[in-house]
Amino acid sequence: MPTQGDYTRIADPAINPGDEPYFDAAGQSRLMLKRCRACGEYHHFPRSICPFCWSQDLEWVEVSGSGSVYTYSVTRRGERAPYCIAYVQLEEGPLLMTNIVAADLDQVRIGLPVRAVFMRSEGGVGIPMFSPIEGDTD
Q1: Which residue(s) pair with 90 in the sheet?
Q2: Is 22 helix (H, G, I), strand (E, B) or coil?
Q3: Would you say residue 138 lies in a domain?
Q4: What single-letter DSSP state applies at residue 48?
Q5: How many domains does the chain have?
Q6: For residue range 85-127, what is the model confidence (pLDDT) as tens digits?
Q7: What is the pTM assigned to this prediction?
Q8: What residues make up the domain containing 31?
Q9: Which of 62, 72, 61, 60 is CA-nearest to residue 114?
Q10: What's the whole-number mean pLDDT along residues 60-76?
Q11: Cα dist from 30 to 24, 26, 61, 67, 116, whole Å
Q12: Is residue 103 part of a domain?
């Protein structure tokens, strides 16, 4: 049962101006996305213009943190291996590039239901990652 490598040393993310609400919420174990008030679409990564309709009428909204693995790759070589990077498609629609943690890496598959968990970077910044929903790793 291969499990993750060392997640005790997570580098601090580069926080762009305007990203603070995303990371502040993650520090409180909450996942926030931007949603367009004009068209209702959620999007990620945070930006100041809706990528669907170009509106600037956006708001931060807390989302469920539930989704499924859209695609993934397991790295089995290197200093911190093994680890799994993935795109997770949230119930709300957007894809997030992330890590799959607290999982048997041989059980990760496309469509695997996952939920957000929050790790801390070396500087204490909350980082959303995802783990399988209990009982759904067959």
Answers
A1: 67
A2: helix
A3: no
A4: S
A5: 1
A6: 999 999 999 999 999 999 999 999 999 999 999 999 999 999 9
A7: 0.87
A8: 20-132
A9: 72
A10: 97
A11: 9, 5, 10, 15, 9
A12: yes
